[in-house]
Amino acid sequence: MKPPQPRTVGLVGGLLGLAAAGAAVGVAATRAASSRVRADRVGPVPGDVPLPPADAPEVPEAPGGRSGRAGKGGRGGRATDVTDLPAEVQRADDPLGSGSRPADRTSLVHATDGVLLHVEEVGPTDAPLTVVLVHGYTLSMASWTFQRRDLGRAVATGNGHAPQARLVFYDQRGHGASARGDAAHSTVDQLAEDLVSVLDACVPRGPVVLVGHSMGGMTVLQLAARRPDLFGGRVVGVGLVSTSAGGLEDLDLGLPGVLTRVRAAVFPVAGFVMRHRPTFAEWIRRSAADVVSWATRALSFAGDEVDPRLVDYVDAMIGGTPVEVIAEFYPAIVGLDAEAAIEPLAHVPVLVLTGDEDKLIPQGHSDRLVAELTAAGARDVRYRVVPHSGHLVLLEHPDEVTAAITELVRRAAAR
């Protein structure tokens, strides 16, 4: 497919732009394009997991469509409780299909404002260490699917020895199967509070390693800034994947200067429309399906060799994120200042990992994190730059990400 002309991107990109400039995938996929991506539609993925044959029986559609949360702050019309659905339905969008790692336990955690957060666990509850993985903007816990399978196999399963860790995944508010909160609570401070709620409910005791991608990394950093007392005691390790401690206001997405200036002029209007005219914004998403798919590939991945069906998977995963949520969180992301997190993190093993072709949160943000941690006296920082990788490094080069997290877990456990 030929890239859209700048004029097309300028006209349509305004209403898509807030997602495009966010910290995860960068664009909002269309509702029409977000029909379930079954495993037989996704091509070969890293790890050489056999895919179901094309004539395999189709997974039945969940009652009421894609599952979600009801209750306080819930999304209208999405009242099906995901925990009532069979595992094969919950995993229907997963690129690994039947090769994915099912949850050993699922639960709902009440955030401080009553919003329900969907949590899934892999591994025994009595494991000596817990790893909590936090996803990024417009994504869901499904973005960790490769790590969930491979970390589950490496550290959360007894392979002739006691499991080393338990894995905890959750959907951030307004994303995935978790409920929405009020717009006033669409802040990184609230996301940090939500992480504390998950820790208190699911990991009330024992050491914890926190790993965050993009907005998930910002969540971890903000927690360190707000609760430095947790780091070095309860929190014994931190992984920061494709993230930033601040300074995203001038993000240029790798665009020429003229388009960057157009973006700056259009975004306030786009944000207003997303918040106050969501139906119209959703129509724009559907009408701009080709532009959205092109932008997902261009902004999220580094090379043309990425399987287009994996791009479809990402489109489908983020397609359920309401445009209002995208608009509400965008100012919080670009306005983040988590410099106060640096000193607490200097007391624990840290992994900083990024792709060298990340257009959404460029490598310079990770360089800065490492430099500031070193200046603060941190003695156990490992920095990994993955070649030929974009913002979705955890999907584009999952083996490298999994290996780095596994090594972080072992460093933390050895302390």
Description:
- This protein is an alpha/beta fold.
- The chain has a domain at 45-253 and 336-414: Rossmann fold (3-Layer(aba) Sandwich), CATH 3.40.50.1820.
- Helix content is 38%, strand content 12%.
- The chain contains 14 helices and eight strands.
- The protein has helices at residues 6-20, 87-90, 145-154, 188-202, 215-226, 257-276, 278-287, 289-300, 308-318, 323-334, 342-345, 363-375, 393-396, 398-414, and strands spanning 105-110, 116-122, 130-134, 166-170, 208-213, 235-241, 350-355, 381-386.
- An eight-stranded mixed β-sheet has the order 1-2-4-3-5-6-7-8, with helices on both faces.
- Strand 3, helix 3 and strand 4 form a beta-alpha-beta unit.
- The longest helix has 20 residues, at 257-276.
- The model is unreliable at 1-92 and 253-266 (pLDDT under 50).
Q: What's the architecture of the domain at 45-253 and 336-414, going by CATH?
A: 3-Layer(aba) Sandwich
Distance between the termini: 51 Å
**Gyration radius, rounded:** 20 Å
Q: How does the major sheet shape up?
A: 8 strands, mixed
Mean pLDDT over all positions: 76
In CATH, the homologous superfamily of the domain at 45-253 and 336-414 goes by the name: Alpha/Beta hydrolase fold, catalytic domain
Strand content: 5-15%
Query: How large is the count of helical segments?
Result: 14
Total DSSP E strands: 8
Q: In terms of structural class, how would the helical and strand content be classed? A: alpha/beta
CATH hierarchy class name of the domain at 45-253 and 336-414: Alpha Beta
Strand order of the largest sheet: 1-2-4-3-5-6-7-8
The level of helicity is 25-40%
Write the H/E string, N to C: HHEEEHEHEHEHHHHHHEHEHH
Protein name: Pimeloyl-ACP methyl ester carboxylesterase
Biased composition (Low complexity): 29-46
GO molecular function: catalytic activity
Domain AB hydrolase-1: 131-403
